[in-house]
Design a protein that fits this description.
CATH topology of the largest domain: FAD/NAD(P)-binding domain
Shape: globular
CATH superfamily of the largest domain: FAD/NAD(P)-binding domain
Structural class: alpha/beta
Strand content: 15-25%
Number of domains: 3
Helix content: 25-40%
Order of helices and strands: EHEEHEEEEHEEEEEEEEHHEEEHHHHHHH
CATH class of the largest domain: Alpha Beta
Number of helices: 12
């Protein structure tokens, strides 16, 4: 194998595969580096669910055959006390439950079919930087140890972010991510003795007691098989998610506790808005490495595939123009932030609020319908929350000492709208970026202050 390529992609997950495939279809010579053996690319701790709309948006064939385990109509969100359940369904809530191993194999094959060269069982160690540009990556593995050179590089290596952490310094480029913006999750695949009562919906259980800063999930993958897990905010003092997971199912879901474990594994998951700048000189960052997840539920499959396609198109354009500096790759930032990124940024504001609320606050807010089921779907799909509370209701809430919770909700809803508009105006000119970034930091500092106030 010749070790010089137009594009080198580190990580053969959904984002990496879509990047590689898109660029190779455009005529580029592409290398895809993956630490796992090719047949195990998709295996990771994940909820395994991805919204149907993501496939529609990027024109990707729906999963079928062994890739597809189940289809869900929507999700049910359960209050901490179990007394209130929101049914969230509609076109935006429909989801596929994947066999990640089989789906991963399909995406790898589609990339290979376009001419991508796969270097599996190969670990990227670090980028090599010359004249403030990434020009190569050092790798080690069973088949090859040495240096792979390229014209452009994509970091799709997940939370480890092998290239991002040592990328050349460019304006506002974040090499590290704060622990408060990560979740530590533990997931198990289990098979029940009997059949599930409800197989059309996934379940999300809100519980600060068991999952501080996160939640517990249960997604059917058939009439007896489930993907179930729990995530906690990765800050000091929070419990081990595996221990909390076991306690939760023993206390709340004994039928799950009795089920046979097929697979169990943990992982860090970014749960924040996308990196403020996702390009450096000779580098684009995709997927979990770029924090391209839904900040509320941590789902990242769809956003990673969306970003991968866009990254591949950006590389084609940059190489045609002969500019692979961060300025030449800037289009990737603009198109992602003005589109999917604006929703993720808005939801990051909502995430900060949710992580600040107690179980009592959540029970009260859900039982009183301060946010409706329809608003939850709208928030998930569009990044917007609307509160319609009459003066009579406000007077009642003031009388029982709950007005502060409503004030936090109203301020959060207003800030979400501001943040979404701010991201939709992401600067096309990199020279205007630092001014945009200062306002971004001000808005999110305001979100943190709202969260810190007692409800």
């Amino acid at each position: 194998m010749e070790h010089f390529f137009d594009l080198v992609v580190v990580g053969a997950g959904p984002g990496g595969c879509l990047t590689a495939k898109t660029a190779a279809k455009g005529g580029l010579k592409v290398c895809l580096i993956e630490a796992k053996p090719a047949e195990y690319v998709g295996l990771k701790a994940c909820g395994d669910a991805v919204g149907k709309h993501h496939f529609d948006n990027i024109g990707l064939r729906y999963p079928e055959g062994p890739e597809l385990c189940w289809e869900l109509r929507g999700v049910k969100i359960v209050s901490p006390d179990g007394e209130t359940v929101f049914n969230v369904e509609g076109m935006g809530a429909k989801a596929f439950l994947l066999d990640r191993k089989e789906f991963g194999k399909r995406l790898v094959k589609e990339a290979l079919d376009t001419g991508v060269e796969l270097m599996d069982e190969t670990t990227a160690i670090e980028p090599l930087v010359e004249d403030s540009h990434i020009t190569a990556v050092r790798v080690t593995g069973k088949r090859f140890r040495g240096t792979i050179r390229g014209r452009v590089f994509v970091d799709a290596s997940g939370v480890s972010a092998v290239l991002r952490r040592k990328a050349p310094e460019t304006p506002g480029f974040e090499r590290t991510v704060a622990r408060r913006d990560l979740e530590l999750a533990y997931r198990e695949l289990r098979v029940l003795e009997g059949e599930l009562e409800d197989v059309e919906y996934g379940y999300i259980y809100l519980t600060q007691r068991y999952a501080p800063g996160g939640y517990f999930w249960l997604f059917p993958k058939g009439v007896r098989n489930v993907n179930t897990g729990l995530g906690v905010q990765a800050v000091e003092g929070n419990p081990n998610p595996q221990i909390s997971f076991t306690k939760f199912i023993e206390d709340r879901l004994p039928h799950i506790a009795k089920a046979k474990v097929l697979d169990g594994r943990g992982a860090y998951v970014p749960t924040r808005r996308p990196l403020d700048n996702m390009v450096s000189n000779g580098l684009l960052v995709v997927g979990d490495a770029a924090c391209q997840v839904n900040p509320i539920h941590g789902g990242g499959l769809g956003p990673a595939m969306t970003a991968g396609k866009l990254a591949g198109e950006t590389v084609l354009d940059a190489l045609e123009r002969g500019d692979v500096s961060y300025r030449g790759l800037w289009r990737y930032n603009v198109e992602y932030m003005r589109g999917y990124g604006s929703k993720q940024a808005s939801l990051d504001v909502f995430r900060m609020l949710l992580q600040s609320l107690s179980d009592d606050d959540l029970n009260y807010g859900m039982s009183r319908g301060l946010i409706s089921e329809g608003d939850v779907l709208k928030a998930s799909m569009q990044g917007e929350v609307k509160l319609t509370i009459t003066e009579k209701v406000l007077k009642f809430l003031r009388s029982i000492g709950r007005l502060s919770l409503v004030v936090k909700l109203k301020e959060t809803a207003a800030l979400m709208k501001l943040v979404k508009s701010h991201y939709q105006a992401f600067p096309e000119n990199p020279d205007e970026y630092l001014s945009w970034l200062r306002e971004t930091r001000r808005l999110f500092e305001e979100a943190r202050k709202i969260g810190l106030r007692k409800a």
